[in-house]
Amino acid sequence: MVIKAVKDFFKRIFSGIKTKKEIKLGFYGPPNAGKTSLANRICKDFTGEEIGKVSKIPHETRNVQFKEKVEIDYKGKKLTFKLIDTPGIATKIDYEDFLKYSMRKKEAKKRAKEATQGVIESIKWLDDMDVVVIVLDSTENPYNQVNITIIGNLVARKIPVLIVANKIDLSKSDIKKIESAFPEYNVIGISARYGDNLDEFYDSVFKLIKKG
Ligand SMILES: Nc1nc2c(ncn2[C@@H]2O[C@H](COP(=O)(O)OP(=O)(O)O)[C@@H](O)[C@H]2O)c(=O)[nH]1
Ligand SMILES: [Mg+2]
Question: N or C terminus of the chain with fewer C-beta within 10 Å?
Answer without folding.
Answer: N
